[in-house]
Amino acid sequence: MLLGGLILSLCANASAPEDAVTARALVSSLGRPAPARTPFAEARFMKMLDEPLVVSGQLAWLGDDRLERRVEHPNREVSTIANGEVTQQREGREPRTFSLKRAPQLQILLDSFVALLGGDASRLEQAFTVQHSANNAKRWTLTLTPRDAKLARSVSHIEIDGSGNEPRCMRMQEADGDLSIDLLGELAAKMPAAPTREALVALCQGG
Amino acid sequence: MQRGGRLTLLVLWLATLALLAVFVLQNLRVSTDLRSFMPAPTTPDQQLLMEQVGEGPGSRLLLLAISGKPDEQLASLSQQLAASLRKDDSYTQVLNGSFDITALDSSLLPYRYLLSPTLDHQRLDAPYLRDELQQRLEDLSSPAGSLLKGLLPRDPTLEVLKLAERWAPARSPELIEGVWFSKNHEALLLVMTRAPGFDPDAQNAAISGIQRMFDALPGHEGATLAFSGPGYFSVVANAQTRGQAEWIGRISTIGFVVLLLLAYRSIGSLLLSALPIASSALAGIAALVMLFPQVHGITLAFGFTLLGVAQEYPIRVLSHRRAGEDAVQSVRDLWPLLLTAIASACIAYLAFYASGVNGLKQLAVFTVTGLLVAGFSTRYLLPYLLPVRVHDVADMRWLIRARQWVDALPRPRWIPMVVAVATVVMLAFAQGPFWQNDLSALTPLPKDLLQRDASLREALGAPDVRYLLVLDAPSEQGVLELSERLEPAVDALVARHAADAIELPSRYLPSASVQRARQERLPEPAALNKALAQAQQDMPFQHDLFVPFLDDVERARTLPLLTPARFAVSPLGQRLSAMLVQRDTHWLGLGTLSGVHDVAALQSLAQQSGGAVRLLDLKGAAESLVVDYRARILHALLAATLLLVVAITVALRSLRRAWHVLAPMTLATFLVLAVERVAGVEVSLFHLVALILAAGLGLHYALFFERDTGDAAEQRRTLHATLVCVLSALLVFGMLAWSSIPVLRAIGLTVSLGVAFHFCLSILMAPHARQD
Question: How high is the ipTM of this complex?
């Protein structure tokens, strides 16, 4: 319910969708050379949990389809995506490896991140239907819906909020109602101690 | 005989053959299972071998590799193929690396607490649960989090994953796109067939079934599916041998027909002389069909080879026809000698019956029936059909000259002595092992197939087909307990690289006592509830999230322990069943080994167990079986030889004459053996069978050359008949000698050499040399 209201409110705030050309131009402007790194702070809201899980660290695009998610807080963990494989390393544990196929969230993260950081609009459009909306002259939101039916079954959509040519937030809405919100760049430092969905969405779009 | 009578006889004969053929075709069940051609196992190892050869997990394993497309498409093909195979009952296990949580049936899921070793060193108390839950929180915030979401409420300690890890092949290949891949970018699968491994026909069906499924997959075009494994090899070896035998057979048949046409210049005689042979083969098979439920393929192959002797009967009749003489009269004159020949061949072949091996008994029935039918139809049917007018071969000019040349050959008395000494010397100084005990050496596989198998086996960590660890205990539970006790030592061996992996039965199912101990360590509901509540304190998990977990633990506390029988409903239980074998009053557990590097270390493990554990070398057991087999054949032959001496002496009513027949035959047989040994040939069962055939032919030559008719023309006819026989045998078996397949070469070379030596020695040792 909460979520439905959230989306409704989002839609109400959004101005009329711009045409695809604007979206393309925006995506192209986001591109930067690899390796591109950005700090992140993630809050995960899950049905089975009373409180969100919060982690922070650094996301890095290493070029091609290689992505690194380095968590520094509260526990150290490095996840690497390369060649369709995810390798997860935690302090004092054997590294774990599994196929990207089994982690649709990661597949989507990879697709969106690589396309955005590579400024590759056509790749983004291959994987998602892209909807662009502008809140004001500088603020924008890209809504990405996976084209792959199998992926869509676990992730309904992903929203990327940005300002100018800087993405600020990435919100991944899972089909079962769980939501994760990643604050990117400078915003990562502004993760509240007890985040709520509303507060974070407000942070992403306003602030 | 009247024309009409002849026609009636011919029609009747052909009609009988047709009836026999129909009977045979309708009732013949050919078995290709090698085991029915093996002697009854006498040692426990041999008995295990016989079972393992067919039913053992190692021999039923097929290794599959899909290549030729980008990884992603290969992975999808691998998934689809695995899915189709899992639906088919002919395949008991299909592994392709994809994580299969259904490996543990959902009805068996509560058993995870009894199967996983966690409870051996842990209790489900508050500190442990708290630690686990803390880790789950980390898991949830990691990219893998969504993988666990479904599992978490029921299994917060992830026992299912611990079991999956425990049951995953010890050395699994690289995973790409979720399925196994080799370093050469082939998607790999392991398939266990229900069909026994060394039944080439059944394996062929299983393999073509897989190929059909693969060909039906969307997007399979451009990708190739390759097979490996013992079952596939038996198919390849079979097809290879059959293929070569067939084309060689076609060529030599044409040659044989041409030879007979040249020798007798009569198509009628040629066609008619084929009748006794056809009758003998059909009658032989019919006898088998009536006496045995299944006829072995090898019996038929050997049998047709040995029936080659019967070819001589009509040839002798044709060569010994005199101008103007009634064919019946010619045969009547020839009959005593022919009967001796038939009787002696029957005695020799009867020896196979005494061997006690089912396949050899069949062989005896087939050949003896065949010889008798061939002999008697040559005597009582064929002469009535043969054309009245023939041209007497005795008048052919080349034959007269040949006979004169043969008669003029010097026949010094020391020839047998020299040959005997030479034979002994050659046998004594021949290098290398005398016997070839490795049957697989006779149907070798292309090197690239073997290399490919080795690399696939290594990549997949598939069990070795040669070695097995055999655990012996009075009961099923005893085997599991023994297996548990063995685990530390076995782990140490793997750590020392004595083998890449060792898989024991207890890996899949702990013994009842271990399960009971684990069950007793499971907390009561109240205690678990309290521990969980304590563990969850200050954690964000919803308070009733873990109700399914509490339910499962409670169920596990009261479950009847998991027995192999109860476990067998799941694929893993089937895997376990294959590792447990009941033997009368006790049970055997079979541990499979992968990548054996240090046999001695494994043997010492077995020795330290005080007899409860043995390292079974299937190759060694197979070889000991072959040795047994050969001993039986040799004993039978010895008995046959003695009988033969008696029979020939009685038939010829003279020891001296019997000597003249038997001496060249014996000498020539050993000479073949000696020459082959000097040439580096190791003697196998197939050589022995070929030697027996050659000896049978040699006996004919000696019998006929020894015959003193006092008639030069008759001597010429004998030479003619013998020449035709020798040439036809050389033609058929000489062709086989050129085969690239050792088993065909063994038979071909031995018979060719034998025929040549027997011919020369029986001429040189014939007692008389009459000049015209």
Answer: 0.82
